[in-house]
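User: quick one, fold this
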Amino acid sequence: MFRKTEIAKFPDVAAIDDPSGSGAPNFRRPASTLPHRWAAPTLVPARPAFDLYPLIAVPARDEAERLPGLINALAKQTWFMCGGGRLDVVLILNNCRDDSLGAARREAEKHEGIDLHAVTVAFEPADAHAGSARRLALDTARALCPPGERGVLLTTDADAVPAHNWIDANLAAISQGADLVGGRLIGNADEEASLGPAFLRRARDQQEFAMLSDQLTAIVDPLPHDPWPRHHDHTGASLAVRAEVYDLVGGLPALPRREDLAFVTNVRARGFKVRHAPEVVVEVSARLSGRAVGGMADCLKQWVTATEAGDPHLVEAPTAILERARRRRLLRTLGDCDAASLATAAMGLSILPADLHDSFGQPRSPEELVERFAPEAPDATPTVPVRAAIDELDGLVRRFGGASRAA
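Assistant:
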């Protein structure tokens, strides 16, 4: 089902079109308010197991071909089978030039359980990126959450296809104590196969390297709320966050690149629990022409180019991964140190003691210290051939007592 959505005139939006085609949008509400649905919201019955209220937020740009697949996958969620009610799906159409709106509306009208809130937006050129659109989508979804409900905001990409239990698996992880859940991403098998066997070997090697890297990190820097087995993905293709947590961290940063990673960093730095749940799965496109600068399509294109050129597949040195995990573990222990021990630890970590405190002189939390002084390194310089790195990581996992080969 498609519902017309009214939206306040945000300062970073150049123009907003009326999704229904019935006339100009209503801008009579104060500009500080968030978008809301014109029709009275349909309350979702409390979930028997979790009592959580999911809302979906999706940014899209020129995705007329792919949006029907996403909406169809959302309409087939197992969440509906247990009395889930109606599902609010917010779609922010960012500077689209195709019929993304029409494609989304036609598909939504086939599914009684989908309440589609589609908003077409014309951002100024500097703001016309996925970060602005995802932020607006999440803010809109947050505003749609009925008072008194325990809202969970879920975001994915317009070209993604969530597994049939995606919503339920996310809610299960939230109900078990997670504040934010990152979903595991798998590439579309047909699209990946079309890129050739050399590309597939590179992709398999990269996946094995990433899994062993994360397994080693889980052994050296164990987190009770995110134990092994887990995975390493926490991108905009699959994130679920408690609505209260979204509010407390100030929402998702509207950055032109890696807005999702910055958001997860902010959530962790505030001490909230991030879970990489293996059972939360989303299929993502392996296309080479994407919408986000520096996104997955650009990464895959670089892989294809490197493979065709015969360039070696290099990755981050396992010793650097081990050192970062050890540093993160040590930083987590600083919350229990007295002043003298704190100063000694700081010097050992090559950190100025003053930097362990905020501008008011208060000690920073261990979680903030980890994100500040031992952050993840997605752009780490690749220096080691991938197969050699895999063998070295496998040996380190065995040495520290874990099962080998990311078992």
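User: anything notable?
Assistant: The CA atoms of residues 117 and 343 lie 53 Å apart.
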